[in-house]
Amino acid sequence: MKKTTLKKTLAAAKPTVATSVPATETGVAPTTNSTLATTPETTATATPISETATANANERMLIYQVLPRLYGNTKTINHHAGTIEENGCGKMNDFTEPVLKSIKDFGYTHIWYTGLLEHATQTSYADHGIAVDNPIVVKGKAGSPYAIKDYYDIDPDLAKM
């Protein structure tokens, strides 16, 4: 699909919030979705978020979850156990004002940046006082956002150095 076609398709999509959703036979109710399953006994409706937010004093939260490491990464080929130079890494400054505005324009009210915490890596940041981690705890040379080693600092891979 061409980029322009994809942009038009995404721009035409309106996030919705289920307003009357019965549980299905499995006991699980459908979540935020424009296509909701129904049974002959019940009907489900979806209301565009903008209408719901206007109608309610308390706007419903719609969270856009993103892994910054992947979001701004320009490398398209990943090498097994590759370095950050080989596989690339998105940076926090990839979330520019226009990007944040477009996310908001899609109806999202919040962003959940996943994988921000400092995690184990074989990338050397000795100039910044950060030691290389033991390879036993590192998934790939560039590290993994799931191998958290510090619940206070942001991973240096996500900063522009």
TrEMBL record:
Gene3D superfamilies: Glycosidases
InterPro entries named among the record's database cross-references: GH
Keywords for the protein's UniProt record, in alphabetical order: Glycosidase, Hydrolase
Alphabetized GO MF terms: hydrolase activity, acting on glycosyl bonds
Annotated protein name in UniProt: Glycosidase
Annotated source species: gut metagenome
